[in-house]
Task: inverse folding
């Protein structure tokens, strides 16, 4: 699940404020990227179903929380290396992590 969602993001990257697109359009782009990436595989349908759990099932929410943690760590590292202000990304990741982790530990097997 992690690999597919991250790879779909590289094909359809998150827009910056300068070129922001509506969330629905971004989600559609990611679905299309995922479908194109998985289409050649014999188990594409099963993999697509699994990837669609991102953020929904307990495991999917755990993966989403890890994705936000990765964003947080990358923003901090970029800020240190480049000397730029990444606090907007840090705040966004922290807010998402707070929501994703809430009650999750009791749901995982």
Result:
């Amino acid at each position: 699940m992690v690999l597919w969602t991250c790879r779909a993001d590289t094909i359809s990257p998150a827009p910056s404020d300068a070129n922001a697109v509506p969330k629905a359009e971004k989600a559609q782009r990611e679905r299309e990227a995922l479908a194109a990436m998985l289409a050649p595989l014999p188990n594409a349908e099963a993999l697509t179903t699994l990837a669609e759990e991102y953020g929904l099932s307990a495991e999917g929410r755990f993966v989403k929380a890890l994705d936000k943690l990765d964003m947080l760590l990358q923003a901090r590292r970029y800020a240190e290396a480049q000397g730029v202000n990444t606090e907007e990304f840090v705040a966004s990741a922290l807010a998402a992590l707070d929501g994703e982790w809430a009650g999750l530990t009791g749901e995982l097997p």
